[in-house]
Amino acid sequence: MKDRNVYLDNNATTPLHPEVKKAISGLFDIYGNASSLHFFGRQAKSAIETARADMASFINADPDEIIFVGSGSEANNTVLNMLSCCSALCSSKYGGKRQIIVSDIEHPCVIETSKCMGQKGMTVARAGVQRSGKIDIGRLKDMINENTVLVSIMMANNEIGTIQDIKSISDITHRNGALLHTDAVQAVGKLPVDVKELGVDFLSFSAHKIYGPKGIGALYARSKAPFCPFIRGGHQEKGRRAGTENTIGIIGMAAAIACRRNEMAQEARRLTRLKQRLKDFIKDNIDDISFNGHPEDCLPGTLNVSFKAAEGEAVMLYLDMEGIAVSTGSACASGSLEPSHVLLAIGMEAEDAHGAIRFSLGRETTDEDIDYVIERLPAVIKKVRGMSSSYFKKG
Predict the structure, then answer these.
(1) For residue 91, pLDDT beyond 80
(2) Most CB within 10 Å of its CB: which of 130, 237, 359, 363?
């Protein structure tokens, strides 16, 4: 019987920050279309531009370099799809280059879209990663050539939390005359991000990963980087993304960013301590486990653990019965019976990958929550392993 509810799936999505709720609740009277010239439209337009400036300053961008989109996935799709635009004008922007490089541990929205680009005639190369989840920089150097138009590497992995050295990847990419995109959906608001220091050409981020509303994201596009809209048919966002702006979502995202500006550093230290408590307990009290992801260069609240011979889906469901919400991997891949492509990419055997659990802590996670997980987790693992004939044989 569950004694409390503990939410440890913050990499999938986060609860709204109380300040975001306040900001949004006062907005329902701002209903004008931001493209309209009358007072109601100008009122919405003004609020959107204020939000754009606030978000731009958070990542050291210029306001005109921020394009509002519907999600991080849309932002990622926008960048990849612009390369296959059939317009003669767009094709000329890339000098006939046809190779895209993405890593083996990208979010499915990048992996699947790159496959689609391959079907449209692009050459798609996959950059491998080391056991820690770090990009193999030497291999990446060998892969980039004069035909490479874009490299897309995520800043922080959603499943194992490994943080990439985007600055070094940017230097390599630009030395070879290619563009760099980074999916920073799990990074912005959790880590300091400065687009000018990183040297990226495109960067995707999203509101609902940082206590903002769902259905709104943003794409940073460097002012001189080539651009082609993914959604056409309107002049919104200076012709770069058609569709009436999501005024409430945009202002809610700006409110979430403002909260991260004030809370991010302190929260990172607190989550790192809570994660270490949980990690130490698991290491000292549960046999046959392994931790996935880089031991230091990792998101503060992300802990990925493989429990040998314990089916991850069963562990997740038994923890859910105890009131503890965790994940076996990306929320966007839930429902799939296939082992995580991220864990396979770092060299894990499929059997072990099936036994992985992601604990992702957030701003509402407390010491009492970790105490509760520590109290319930060993019994759940023992129960699930008790149903495994392979673990019984090893015992």
Answers:
(1) no
(2) 359
Establish whether 259 is a catalytic residue: no
Whole-angstrom distance, CA of residue 106 vs CA of residue 162? 12
The Cα–Cα gap between 312 and 206 comes to 27
SS (H, E, C) 225-255: CCCCCCCCCCCHHHHCCCCCCCHHHHHHHHH
Q: What's the confidence (pLDDT) of residue 104?
A: 96
Question: What is the rounded CA–CA span in Å between residue 354 and residue 130?
Answer: 19
In the predicted model, is pLDDT for residue 122 greater than 60? yes
- Average pLDDT (24-41) is 90
Decide if pLDDT at 222 tops 90. Answer: yes
Q: Which amino acid is at 364?
A: E
d(CA 394, CA 61): 55
- Res 148: pLDDT: 96
* HEC sequence for 325-342: ECECCCHHHCCCCCCCHH
Do the Cβ atoms of 383 and 310 come closer than 8 Å? Answer: no
| Cα first-last separation, the chain | 29
Strands 302-307 and 289-292 come out as antiparallel
Please name the residue that has the structure tokens 């991260």.
Answer: 260
Full DSSP string of 281-344: HHHHHSSSEEEES-SSSB-TTEEEEEETT--HHHHHHHHHHTTEE-BSS-GGGTT--SPPHHHH
Helix (H), strand (E) at residue 199: none
Question: Any bridge partners for residue 157, and if so which?
Answer: none
pTM above 0.85, yes or no: yes
- The angle at the Cα of 255, spanning 251 to 256, to the nearest 5 degrees, equals 120
Q: How far is CA 52 from CA 58, 182, 237, in A?
A: 10, 20, 11
pLDDT at 395: 46
Tell me if 390 sits within 8 A of 309, measured CB to CB: yes
Instruction: List pLDDT tens digits, range 132-163.
Output: 999 999 999 999 999 999 999 999 999 999 99
Buried/exposed code over 144-181 (b: 16+ C-beta within 10 A; e: otherwise): beeebbbbbbbbbbbbbbbbbebeebbebbeeeebbbb
- 8 A C-beta contact, residue 152 and residue 182: yes
CB-based contact 219:202 (threshold 8 Å): yes
Amino acid at 356: A
